[in-house]
Each structure stands twice: as C-alpha cells, then as structure tokens.
Amino acid sequence: MIPEIGHFALILALFVALALGTLGVIGGQQGRADWMALARPGAQALWLLAVISFGCLTYAFFTNDFSVSYVAQHSNTKLPDIYRIAGVWGGHEGSLLLWFLMLCTWMMAVSLFSQQLPDVMVSRVLAVLALVAVGFLLFMLITSNPFLRLSEIPAEGRDLNPLLQDPGLVFHPPMLYMGYVGMAVPFAFSIAALLNGRLDAAWARWTRPWATAAWICLTIGIAMGSWWAYYELGWGGWWFWDPVENASFLPWLVGSALIHSLAVTEKRGLFRSWTIMLSIIGFSLSLLGTFLVRSGVLTSVHAFATDPKRGVFILLFLAAVVGGSLTLFAARSGKVRSGGAFALVSRETFLLINNVLLTTAAAAVLLGTLYPLIVDALNLGKLSVGPPYFNAVFAPIMLPVLFFMVVGSFARWKNDSVAELSKKLGPVAAVSVLLGCSAPFLAGPWSWLVALSLSLVFWIVLTSLQHIYRQLKNTTNWKVIPLAYWGMHMAHIGIAICVVGITMVKAYENEKDVRMAIGDTVEVAGYTFRLTNISEVPGPNYTADRGIVELSKDGKVLRTLEPEKRTYFSSSMPMTETAIDSKLTRDVYVALGERLTDSSTPAWAMRVYYKPFVTWIWGGCLLMALGGALAALDRRYRRKAVATVPTHAKGVAV
Amino acid sequence: MKPRHKRAAIIIGALAALGIAAYFVLNAFQSNLVFFFSPTQVAAGEAPKNRTFRIGGLVKEGSVKRDNLTVSFVVTDTSKDVPTTYTGILPDLFKEGKGVVAQGKFDADGKFVATEVLAKHDENYMPPEAKAALDQAQIQKTIKSLK
To answer: Are A221 and A179 in contact (CB under 8 A)?
Structure first.
C-alpha cells in the first residue's frame, strides 16, 4: 500500500508540474495575474508530493519491504539503520527521486524567499523549474520507477554496495545533488529574464544569492566526495580526474565564473549575455553530469546499472533543454545587450579574464571527459585520457586565475591604473615571493612550481588581510561593512588554503606498498609503522581482519592505527577500511591489503602513506563555502526596495 | 584609448589567452591518450611497443601467482591470453574469473607490466572495456564456427 501511495504521488506530481509549467509560462506572457498567483502554492504542493513520495520509499527501506524491487536490490535486513535510510539514494532510481526532491526543495525555497520579486518573475522562474521537474518525473516514471513491485517476494535483500556503507553516503550525495539541482535556479532566472526581455541590475541582484547558494552546495558536495574517496577507497588519492568527478567539477567551474560574472552584471550592468550564457551552460553541465553518471556509459563507483533506454532519455532531455534555451537566447539576446564602458585596467577586465580562464579550464576538462565517450560511440576504438592530461592542463590555467583574483579584488570598478595597483600590491608581492620561495626549503626538495604556488598563496592571504585591515581603519563602525565583503575574502583565503594542500601533497607525499608479517616495521617520512597483531573481528553485517599498527616517531609511540579488511556476508565482497592519523599539517594513512599466503609465516600486503597538508584541501573548500554563505546572506539581497539603476559601488562590496 | 580600441584589445587579449590554452590542452591531450587493446589485438601485434596502453578481459582461472608484492596473472578474452605482472596492492575486487582492466607497457621481454590495475566498484559490474573485449572475442569465435 505505502509504495503505491509513493508511486501515485509521483504521478500526481507530474500533472501538478505540467500545470505549473504551462500556466506559469502562458500566464506570464499574457499577463494573467490569476494564473501567476498559482505559482507559489503550486510549487509548495509539488514539494509536498515529493516529500510524500520520498517518505514512502524511505518507509519501504526501513521496514525491509522486499516486495519493492528497488529495496530488494539495495537493502538487507542486516543493514544498520542509518544505511537503510541513506540506502534510499544508494541506487539509480532512488537517487533520481532524491534529485527530484532536491529540485522541489529549491522551488519551495524560491516560493518562500521571493517576497521582493514581482509576481511575473516568480511565476516564470517556478514555471521553468516545474518544466525541468516534468522532465525528471517522466524519466522516473518511464524508465526508472523506484516503486515497482516484484511478483515473487525475496526473503532477503541483495544488500547495499559495501563501498557505500559509510557515513559519507549520508551526506555526500544529498549535498552534491543540492548543488547540481541548484544550478537550475539561476538557469530558471535567466530563462525568465529572456522571456521578460528585461535584464537589469535588479535581476542580477535577485539571481546572485541563488547562484551562490547552489555553488556552496556544489563546493561542499565535491569536497565531501573527495574526502570520502580519500579514506574509503584506500588508494590515498583525493582526486582521480575520474569522469564522474569531472562531471561534478564542470558545473563548479562554470558556477564559479557565473557568481563573479553576476557581480559585474549587478554592479555595472555589464556582461549580461555572458551571464545568461553561463547560467545556461552551468545547468546543462549539471544535466550532462547526470547523464554521464546515470546512463552507465562510465566505469565508476557511481555507475549503478546499464540501461541504454535511460541514457537516450537523458540525452534527449539534455538536447531539449540546451536547444530550447539557446534558441530563446538567440531570439532575445538582442534585447539584453550590455551597455556601459570600462577601462582596460579595471575590476571588470580582471573578472572577465578569470571568467574566460575558468571557462577555458572547464572546456579542457570537458574535452578530456567526453572525447573517449565520443570516440567509443563512433566506434573508432577505445581509449582513455589519463590524469596526467588534466594535471598538465589544469595547473597552467589555474595559476593565472589566482594571480588575477588578487588583482581583481583590489582594482576599482570602471577605471584603475597600473601604477596605483602596483603601489598597493607590489610590496606585499615582494614579501610573498620571498616567503613562497623560502617555505619549500622547510618541507623538502625545492621546486619552482611549489615556490610559485606558495608565493601566490602568501600573496592572496596577505593582500586579503591588508585589505581587511585598511577597511577596518577607514570605517568607524565595523558593523557597516557588508557581509559580502567578509564572504569574498574568506572564500579567497579558502582557495589559498586549498592550494596549499594540493601543492604540498603533490610535491611531498610519500607512499610505500610493503609486505608485512607480525612484528615487521616500515618507515615512511620519519614515521615508523610496526604491525603488532592481526585478528578477526565481527561486525554487524561483515567480518573483518583488523590489523593493529603502532605508529611512532623518533622512538616515541604516538598511537595505534587499526586498518581493516572487511568481508561482507551478503556479497562476499572484500572492502578496505583505512586507518588515518590526521594532524593539522599531515595525515598518516595505513591500508590493509590482501593476506599473502605464499610463505609459511602469515603476512599481509600493506600500504602506508605520508600526506602533508592534505586536510587543508577540504578545509579550504569549507572556508570557500562559508565565504559563499556570508556573501549570499548579505542584507542587500533581503531589502525590499527594487532599484532598476545599477548601483555603482565604491570599491567595497563585490 | 577609444572604447572601440579597448574592446579590440580585450578581444585580442582573450583570443591570445585562448590560443595559448588551446596549445597547452592539445599538446597534453596528444601525449596522454591511452588506447585500449583486447588480448586478441595484443596477440595480433596491434598494441604499441613503447607506449602505455590498456588491456582488459577476465583474470584467467588458476593464473594468479604471488611472489611477495609482485603478482602475475593472465588476462584473457577467452580466445587469446596476455601474461601480466603487477607490483603493489591489488584492488579489493580483483579475483580470478572476474573482469579486469590493466594499464601498462611491454617490458624488454615482451611481457605486459601493469602500472595500474583498475578497480571495479561492484562485484556484479563488468568494466565496459573488459566486456567489449570478451564480446569481440565471442563474435570472432562464432564467425569461425560458422565458416
């Protein structure tokens, strides 16, 4: 009964979304206030239906209702409670339902926090989002219904993939989906503006907090995924340039460009077409990501099942969204042409440069991600593009981004001079280069790449602090400094911290694969690891070989690490559980490999790592997200007054 | 500068940046493409001699031998075999009779030395590359039996 209610709620949601979409668009075009007034309650009803549907599936998981095919495939009576709830999105169908729920949650948020928006805008935005929802509802109902029943009810479920049985599953997918789907909101605002034929500073101010919110979720989602892969997969890597990772990184890159381009559109009324274009590309890349992940064209932890029908559907949907919005853009872009001029040396220029660089980086990543798929689809052979490609391409594009980020946040809008900028930034730059070039000597062998990126890092942090110091000195009451100002500097410092992590890990990490019998020791980067014991330990739905490894440095025992090798009952699939000793400036990481049975003494393959500053990568991301949150909460977004003239900032807020 | 000149300067600057980026990208792209060969193709001598490539298929039953951390095994598409060695820790799901994709090079003796053995993430999931190799071999066999 309960699964049928969930199924029915989905069907009902399809009709509500269809009505909301068509009435909103037509009502907006014909100026029918009564139809437009339906937008908010319609969106809220849709959200309620999504919650009901999602709740029903969760209930089916929680009560081990194996008559539901999806539950039977992804759950098990021995599964711990928390994974029986998180397991809802542990497979293809359920994760689509989560996608839909997230979309409805964004719609709900738009309907609640849009008091200052004109009704026609709200109804158009919600209508576009509802049409996106229609696409996903059709997709679910036609190809991937999570509520399908089995005629023969199995006594036991097949269990959740052991890789997914980790707290990471509870947080990473919802957060990332929130970000993916969140890109639909700026997209909907852009489409609404194109339908409106008006794109002014007020529009940009309405859109900015939403774009930033989506970007925050993406940032956290990606960082969590990276951290999860780092400790769960047992390979010690935190980023593999895996197509699925790239799929989430692409909207992030474009989203980063978008939030900055929106700043220019809001403050100066420029780059309008570019902003619209970025929001369309951003959402299209989110959909592309969904296609890559959900169609089974990829070998990945995220690829659940292969069903060509699904891939074709998403591809058609993607074509409709991209084709439709680009056609609308072509038809209407004449009306949104940017006005205004700015000098070559101005904040606008530097933001533009970074926008171009970020999109170039996205294009390069896209090429490496899609090329193998296209070649394969055309039957020209099978190939892959390795991580060296991405590393070789990405660093040279991103280093200038860091440089212009500093210059851009110091330059004035409209017009500035090189002389003045170098007067402000020069002394700090000299100090930064000095620090950046000497810091590597403390860490290990000197390399110019490490020196260069650390110099940039020092420059970013020191100039931000310098800027904040001056700002505080010039204002009598620090409370009047807008939140967005703090947000910007916090996010930029976050990037610097992230870069420290990436640079240090890349340059100075150390790993060893060794064979260890009980009592053996191995030394990595000054740390000594001694395997003292290995014993069998029972778990709720697995048994594990647990190693006891004593970690010591300079003869002093620091702690014991307990890596495990688990075997799950339901699938007899082995799983590596790593043990990590995490400190501010380094991680020490042990993973237990397989038991080596070649000789008489029992021995295990072990992998030990020394990872300097690795946690800074995720710490930096967190700081970026916090900075984004401050920027999105700035009080000017909550003001009721609707100004149509671009407000010229006085060099403070971005 | 007149606005028109300024715009021209910006456009030229952007194009130059794009050009440089495109150069980097395509250069790196060229040298980092890793091609895939099935064991049948490897046996036919189609695989490159001095370049990294990928092979895929099944880990042949009874072929896995360990010598400390060096593992030797045979990758097969059921029609042809490629003897392979790998030093290090294998992914959790590496098993005899299961699908595998390995990346590496031929050594001086013409033996395939893998630097990376790719993990599957689900015991029921077959890497598409490995599956393609098996399918291809199956098709060849069927064609032969029909002749």
So the answer is: yes
Q: Tokens 């799950």 belong to which residue?
A: A568
CA-only gyration radius of chain A, Å: 26
| Helix, strand, coil percentages, rounded to 5, for chain A | 65, 15, 25
Residue B17 and residue B75 in one domain: no
Q: Is the pLDDT of residue B77 over 80?
A: yes
Kindly determine whether residue A598 and residue B68, on different chains, have CB atoms separated by under 8 Å. Answer: yes
- To which H or E segment does residue A385 belong? strand A383-385
B135 and B86 share a domain? yes
Residues A538-557 as b/e (b if ≥16 CB within 10 A, e otherwise) read ebebbebbbbbbbbbeeeee
Q: Give pLDDT < 50 ranges for chain A.
A: 300-301, 303-305, 641-654
Region class of A486: left (phi > 0), else alpha (psi between -120 and 50), else beta: alpha
If DSSP codes are grouped into helix, strand and coil, which group holds residue A526? coil
Count other C-beta atoms under 10 Å from residue A44's C-beta: 16
- Contact between B69 and A161 using a beta-carbon 8 Å cutoff: no
Domain of B3, in residue numbers: 1-33
pLDDT digits (tens, 9 = 90+) for A268-303: 888 888 899 999 999 999 988 877 776 666 554 454
Residues B81 and B64 in one domain: yes
Report the number of distinct structural domains present in chain B: 2
Nearest CA in chain A to B38: A382
* B74 and B12 inside one domain: no
User: Pick from A648, A652, A650: which is nearest to A264 by CA?
Assistant: A648
Do B73 and B60 fall within a single domain? yes
The answer to whether ipTM exceeds 0.90 is no
Q: With a CB-CB cutoff of 8 Å, which residues 289-328 of chain A face chain B?
A: 297-301, 303
Q: Which residue has the tokens 């593992």?
A: B71
In this structure, how many other beta carbons lie within 10 angstroms of the beta carbon of residue A391? Answer: 15
Domain match, B62 and B20 both: no
Pair B13, B68 in one domain = no
- Whether residue B54 contacts residue B100, with contact meaning beta carbons closer than 8 Å, is answered with no
A87: closest CA of chain B, how far (Å): 15
* H-only helix segments in A475-584: 483-508
Q: Are residues B96 and B51 in the same domain?
A: yes
Is the Cβ pair B17, A163 closer than 8 Å? no
Residues 6+ apart with CB under 8 A from A101: A50, A51, A53, A54
- Residue A83 to residue A86: CA distance in whole angstroms: 5
What CATH number does the domain containing B80 carry?
Answer: 2.40.50.140
Give the pair of three-digit tokens for residue A300: 């990945």
B109-125 per-position pLDDT tens digit: 878 999 888 765 555 55
What is the per-residue pLDDT for A654?
44
